[in-house]
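Task 17 of the worksheet. Students: predict the tertiary structure of the chain below and write it out as structure tokens. Keep your answer in the requested format; marks are given for formatting as well as content.
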Amino acid sequence: MMGFRTNIILNDTIEEISIWNHIIKQWQKINRDYLEDSNFQDSLYWYNERANISCLAGSIWKIGGYALEEYTAIKGEEKKYGRIDLYFSIDEVEYIIEAKHQWLQFNTKIKNFNNFEQDINDYLNQATDDCKKSMQNNDINNGLGLVFITPYWDSKLDKNKELANFENELLKQNYDVIGTFTIDVEDIKNDYNLNSNQGNTCNAVYIIGKYLSKT
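Model answer:
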């Protein structure tokens, strides 16, 4: 049997929680629809950071917002030109987002959240620091440091149970934004494991984020 597991947890410090709830729901739907349309031979999330940002931007457009990716702007105290990963506006709420993409390998040893916690937080801190620099020289008050987490393992192994345990631990963490999307595979022989041409299974993508505000 195959289905999808999805979850959303949002900290009440975030500006316009309802908007983020709609964005992440649409992000989950786009990932699901693409998998189904490709007959589970391809995904939007197993490429790179830019591909994941594009999926998130698509979610924003789908719910009536405006999104601008990879645009040039003045950044940081040095006021040098650089690129901002994503800007969006929905119902007069504006955000700057800086993102990272993190691969997590589940192989022969059982993995849990504690094995990865430091690395995940390092990626999130990098994204948050980038977002602070991007917010310094403009009048946009809301920002989000974001990490797209993509777990994977050798397709000869069955790590779906470990993945579920990791996901449960992730959902207990105190991040401002958590969004999960997982192919729910009960049988490792099921054709719906998403296997790459490099011999890896990649059945999930997660979003975590830290909110920033000038106000």
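Marker's comment: The first strand starts at residue 2 and ends at 10. The chain has four helices and eight strands.
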